Every structure is written in structure tokens, then in C-alpha cells.
Please model this.
Amino acid sequence: MITTYGFSIATPNKDLRQAAIDAVFRWLDEVHPQEMRTNATPVNVRHSANDAIFRVDVLEQDNKQAAARGTTVTLITSKDELYFDLRRTLRPTKPAVLPRRTIDRPEPRLNKLVLEIVELFKVRDAEKIIDAKITIANDQLSGQSLAAFAEAPSRRLPIVIEVIVGKPSAITSSETAKQLAGIAHLAHVTSHVADEAFEDLYGAKAISSSWITVVWPRGVAPEKFHQQDDDEVVNQLIAASIGSLATLVLSQPRKNMIIEKTSHAPKIEITSQPVGLLQENLELNNTVKELLEENASLLENATLTDMLSAQKTEERDRAYSQLATFLMMEDDKSYLDRVSDAVAFAQKNLPNIIFHQRAISSANDSHLMNGRRIYSNLVELNNLAARLQRGDFAPNVFNIYCNQQLSNFAASISDEAEHRYAQDYAIDWKGENVLAKPHIRCGDARIHFYHDTKTNEIVIAYVGRHLRDKSNK
Model:
């Protein structure tokens, strides 16, 4: 398992616990609505009014590789503070050597939750509230204030400083500030006066319009980034945030439980303990820690196993249903003979492909009688669409899989058909005019479909006789 994004924040205001839990549940309902959840996307929730630990763990298939993306949100209420922890992880699901992607910027849906928690907690860092806004230094006083903040011994988050004087545009932006919310502060120096004031007070040439400066806390030397975009600096800061995450212990140690049980017993004063007993306690604590870590690993493996088992179960159920349909066809030779009947039946029983209205009308107008062959190809296309949406392979290789699984498949149409008869292949899809180029040849019939790469939806656009091209003008 690799942690690719991490963010944590703590507040002494423990009354914010319920508000934070509500924010997590709103995010969960938005990302994974209850009615849309399947066994292939497990969601585990630990939540009790008497439990100091609240946790949500979501596992999703990664469309780009044979791995699962885990999102874990943990809220811990301790004696002194309310601690919020969010982690994004990459968990391999197949025995394959994969590229080690160590850093991920938080996607918009996750970043929205981070921004809401940061705004809710209103935590101060060296007297400055942690937020997702850019601090502007445009005069002598603000330049000196920024330098004083950079040198503050109590500061725990790094500061990203960009001098934008003389630049056509800034490299870092408000989007950068949102991506780094709770991880780093972002400041822009917008005048020569502020630049000089910062340098005079800071005592070194740390900032310049030629680079971006990261001023690390705790006396670590500033770091300069000369790149033309903010990717490197954001990746470095996210990596630093991941490295600073605490090791989470999600179960109370046994010694705490024993203390709770014996809290009402007569108080006995113990002035000293034998050295041997102290050593035994230390070893016991280490053993408990190791067992907790092992238990967390076993739970993770069990979750991955459940997800893969659910996928296999879905595939098996789908195969049984398809087999029953084909056996029914053999019993009744007239069953699904007409193309229009096959399309109507497929529309009800193949949930992973979408039938455009033109596909239905073209099938009804065709009067073709090879419906079972049409349905058989639609079944295979539906299975491929299910694998695509589940993330078994990347969208850009979908046509390759179609070519392997579907006989008489063509990934596109001729240039003449596209330029002279484009209207024959066009459909209106979500307000856009798109061409359904991929098609399956079924004797005299054709199945044309459109792959929406934004949503990975497969849209059946046309079922009927051969459309016009260079061979049948």
C-alpha cells in the first residue's frame, strides 16, 4: 500500500466533532450515494457516540491500472484535541508490477472536503489562521509581516512565496492555494517595496521573481524551485505532508481499559516499580502496537478480497443470465428473430449500455430478421462496457478489447463516409453533435455506438441496415 496524499489538522475545540462528521457524510453521499453503492466499491464506516474514533474507508477501482484507490477519513477525539486525518492510498489488486505513483493532487471532490474542514476548524499557525487564501504582500509593512511570519519559531507549516513583480502571470494561483490547504501557506509579493522589506528583515536573498521559494519551518533552509509551473513544488509539499502523518492507533491499548475498570478501586500509592516490571510493560506495549498494525493490514487485505469476490460474483450472475437467455432462444426458434425485438429486449436486460432514441427507431424501421445475432453482439458489448466502467482497463484501449471480443468489429468509418455522409452517423448526445464511428457488422445489419470518454458511457446510436459510405453511395 502506498500513501499518495495526506492531510491532517487538529483543533482544541472538541465541540466541532459532530460538524466534522456531518461534513464527511455529506461528502460520502455526494461521491457514493447510497443507492449507487455496490459490493465492488466497499464503504466501511466506524461511528458511535461512545467511540472516540470516527472512521470512513472507501475503496474504488483505479481506471488507469490494476489497483484500488482507498480514501480513509479518521476523526479522533482525545483528552486535549480533536484530530482530523485524511489519506489517499494506492492498493494493488493484481499480481503485476505497476508504476510507483507516490503523489496525487487531491481531486476536486476530495479537495472540497479538505476546504470545508479547514474552514470549520479555523486553526492558527503562528497566529495566522490556516486557510486556502493567498497572502498578498504589496507594501513595506506587509513585506515585513511576511518575513516575521517566515521566521516565527512556532510556525509548523511551510510557506510558498512567489514574487510576481515583472512577470506576465503568476505560476502559483488560487487553485494552488486550494490544493495546499492545510499543508502549506501561499504568499505573493507584488511590489519592489515589499520585496526589499522582506529581504531587509529576513536578512538573506531568499525570494526572487526568478524562482519560487518554500520557507520550511523549524529552521530548515529555504528551498528554491525554478520550474515554469507549480507541479514540482506542490508534489514536494504533499510528499512532506505524507511524511509528517502520525501513525494512527485505532484501538485503545489494553492498559487503558484496565485503568478504566479499576478506577473505582481503593487508591493505592505506589512509590516505585521494579526495573523488570517496567521492561515488561515496554515490551507489552510494543507487542500491542505490532498486533494493531498487523490487524490493520489484515483488514485491508480482507476488504480487497471482498471487492474482488464481488466482481467475480457479478460476472458469474451475468453469465448465468445470458446463458438462460440463449437457451430460451434455442427452445423457441422465433424468439428475438426480429432486430426490433432484440433491441427492445436488450434495452431492458443490458444495463451497461445506453440506447439512444435513434437506435430504437432505426431498429423498428429496418424490418431485419437477424435479431439473435444482433442481441448476441450487444451482450458482448455490454460485458465490455461493464469492465470499462469498473476500471479493468483504460478507456483508450477499449477499441482494442472490442476488436478481440467482437467479430466483425470496426473502430471507425471511412474518410468519405465521415466527410460526405456525416449526418448518417451523427446523434445528439448531452447537447453535442457526435459521430458514432465504432460499429459491428452483423450480415446486412450494423450496430453503431459512441464511447463517451468523459463518463465512460457506451451509447448505442444506430441499429439497422448498412449506412451510406464509399461502397453504397
Notes: Confidence is low (pLDDT under 50) at residues 252-272. The two ends are 58 Å apart (CA to CA). Residues 1-121 form one domain. The chain is about 40% helix and 20% strand.
